[in-house]
Amino acid sequence: MARICFVIMPFSSTESCSGEDWTWIFENVLKPAVEDAGLDYECRRSTATRGNLVAAILQDLKEAYVVLADLTDRNANVFYELGVRHSLTDRSIILAQSSEDIPFDLQAYAYHVYGWKTEEMRFQLTEKLRQLLRDVDTNPDRPDNPVSDFLGRANAPTQAIEPVQIAPSEVATAQPLAGPGAEGLNATGFAKTLTASGSPTAVNAVLRLTRSELTQLMIGTMETLDQRPRSESIQVDQIPVVASEHIAEMEPHIQKVEEFILACVEEDWVPGTRMGLRLAGGMDISQ
Question: What's the pTM?
Answer without folding.
Answer: 0.53
